[in-house]
Write a structure and sequence with these properties.
This protein is mainly α. The chain has 10 helices and no strands. Helices cover 72% and strands 0% of the residues.
Length: 199
């Protein structure tokens, strides 16, 4: 694999993924710095804590779309394998954005966006996994962990090797970013969907 093309894919993906849409939208609509409320996260869940469902929904769409868009752009110019590198790098950028001292989101929306855009069968199965686990357990974090953990396996079973590497990379980071949630799940202290203290 061409190292120059790989570097381009990583750079484009990372910079696109680093755009903190939640923070920018909240400030633009007069909601202040979302890093000072709730979990301090820049993702859609914390944006929702401002009370603005419209901003949270837009944040969700943009965070999901940036990995897929990065993959499409890079893939158009450099070819399919590099699209997965760009999408994975966008995911990395969302979790560790250079503009915010590498303190970003947990990456679940970006994870789903990358899968649905670049390898939609895997994305649909991951989304279905999230819905099933969330319905049964009412834990959003647990659902995300199950979806992330099964995505690489699904990609392998479907014969999508490059997608499997991308999914495995994102799954690893999702588990790392959710380490506090995992601790609360093990202690039975994690908040459930619909409770006043959101995930």
């Amino acid at each position: 694999m061409d190292p120059i093309s790989s570097l381009i894919a990583v750079s484009v993906g990372y910079l696109m993924g680093s755009i903190p849409f939640g923070l920018l939208l909240a400030k633009a609509f007069g909601q202040g710095d979302i890093r000072t409320i709730g979990s301090g996260n820049i993702g859609a869940t914390n944006v929702l804590r401002t009370g603005r469902k419209d901003i949270a929904a837009l944040t969700l769409l943009l965070d999901a779309g940036k990995a897929g868009l990065a993959g499409f752009i890079v893939g158009h110019f450099l070819g399919a394998p590099f699209s997965f590198i760009a999408a994975a790098s966008a995911f990395l950028g969302h979790c560790f954005p250079i503009w915010l001292k590498f303190k970003g989101g947990k990456g679940v929306a970006t994870f789903f966006g990358a899968l649905l855009a670049l390898v939609w069968p895997v994305g649909l199965i991951a989304a279905a996994t999230w819905l099933i686990i969330a319905f049964i357990s009412r834990y959003s974090s647990l659902a995300a962990l199950w979806a992330a953990g099964l995505a690489p396996i699904t990609a392998i079973l479907l014969g999508r090797q490059h997608a499997a590497f991308m999914a495995a990379f994102m799954a690893l980071l999702i588990f790392i970013r959710h380490r506090e949630n995992i601790g609360r799940l093990l202690k039975g202290q994690e908040s459930k969907i619909g409770e006043s203290k959101s995930l």
